[in-house]
Amino acid sequence: MITVLLADDEHLIRGAVASLLTLEDDITVVAQAGTGDEALAMAGAHRPDVAVLDLQMPEPDGLTVAARLRDSLPGCASLIVTSHAGAGALKRALSVGVRGFVPKTLSAHRLAQIIRTVHTGGRYIDPELAADAITAGDSPLTPRETEILAYAEYGAPVADIAARASLSVGTVRNYLSSAAMKLGARNRHVAARLARENGWL
To answer: What does the pLDDT read at residue 138?
Structure first.
């Protein structure tokens, strides 16, 4: 029996996938989580064979969870599900040892097949997501702009970002302005969304 952890902040989707996977004879969902922190806690408690992780969960995101699981639970294969991913996300996924990278439009039956593949040491990258990632290109942002924009993604005030990054408020504003300009975004919130959609955060 292949034991699975499902982590997705969309409760309806997570519950539906869990119900459908239980129809498979050789797969059982042993834990569910709505955030990255919950996923890590559940993985530690249940030690699943496969972790199916949403790319864009509340902090930490699916890729960060996958990286931590690689170190803390090397016997657990990570599989990322996403509605959109750019080159940065796919490259990072591969660099942290993710075994599968698939769209949320996948059928439960196909997901079950891919869970079996990654459980036995195989790898599966959805061809369409791979093509999208390749055409998205590399990030135009500097590492510091990326860091500051990531802090801004969830609406943190500039003063909080400055304190977190050990920078002045003016410097943070400059980084955010530069990032928004490079991405053609009208404000930092739109810039963060665009960067996330392209897999640069």
So the answer is: 74
Instruction: List Cβ neighbours of 39 (8 Å cut-off, separation of 6 or more).
Output: 5, 7, 33, 51, 53, 57, 65
Residue pair 48/3 in contact (Cβ under 8 Å)? The answer is yes
70, 80, 88, 92, 137 from 96: Cα distances, Å: 7, 11, 12, 6, 20
CA 5 from centroid of its chain's CA atoms = 15
Topology (CATH) of 143-197: Arc Repressor Mutant, subunit A (1.10.10)
pTM of the complete model = 0.72
Whether 56 and 196 have beta carbons less than 8 Å apart is answered as yes
The span from the first CA to the last CA of the chain, in angstroms, equals 35
Which CATH number does 2-135 carry?
3.40.50.2300
Span 44-71, pLDDT tens digits:
999 999 999 999 887 788 999 999 999 9
Distance CA 196, CA 122 (A): 27
Write the CA distances from 87 to 39, 123, 142, 150, 199, integer angstroms: 25, 18, 16, 17, 6
Q: What is the band of 28 on the pLDDT scale with cuts at 50, 70, 90? A: very high
In the predicted model, is pLDDT for residue 21 greater than 70?
Answer: yes
DSSP class of residue 186 equals: S
